[in-house]
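It is worth pausing here to work through a concrete case rather than discussing structure prediction in the abstract. The textbook approach is simple: state the sequence, then state the predicted structure, then interpret. We follow exactly that order.
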Amino acid sequence: MSTTSIEWTEATWNPVTGCSKISPGCQHCYAERMAKRLQAMGQPNYRDGFAVRTHEHMLRLPSSWARPRMVFVNSMGDLFHEEVPIEFIMRVFDTMEQTPRHTYQLLTKRADRLAEVAPLLNWPANVWMGVTVEDNERLARIDSLREVPAKVRFLSVEPLLGPLTDLNLSGVDWVIVGGESGPRARPLDPEWVLAIRDECVASSVPFFFKQWGGVRKKAAGRELENRTWNQMPLSAAGVT
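Step two, the predicted structure:
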């Protein structure tokens, strides 16, 4: 298991590592930076840097975790990348189905492939599925997500790069919003965040504000209008 500082989960599991850029949100990818660091440190799963690789030896890892936990799947890659064989995706889903004590959170920018392979997969209740939507031009990913029979469907609006003026939350159970962080972070307009928050409140969709981001993200904090928004789907323990 890898512990994590990601605010909306408890652990990460990476049976797939590596990815490739497909939209503006990928421009300053944190996972790519981290993969290069791990490659330099000699970590065997990253011997090929950020090239897409599947890791057979990682498939059964969650079975060894006795305590139930929230698990972000593939924080260092994209399970639905076109280079990941459908057979391997099915094996990842088998592991998740066989470990119902854990809750798994999957996230992809490749919504078209997600919709294509979703009918071939079993969708146990402990699997949450999300898509990344960084700007108004990427909203079509939500339409693909709506086709997926996951118990919880969610959006990661991070890094938020512009207003989501045409956002439709029908069929969406949770929204996470955050600004970009790192040395070349692009700015986040508070009005963009507030508009999404207000849409979530109006639609009774749980809203989680992850960070303002920036070069010094810890200093920028997480408060939005003098409060912290940590809402989770109703099926999650410890709803706030």
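Step three, interpretation. The chain has one domain: 9-20+28-220. DSSP finds six helices and ten strands in the chain.
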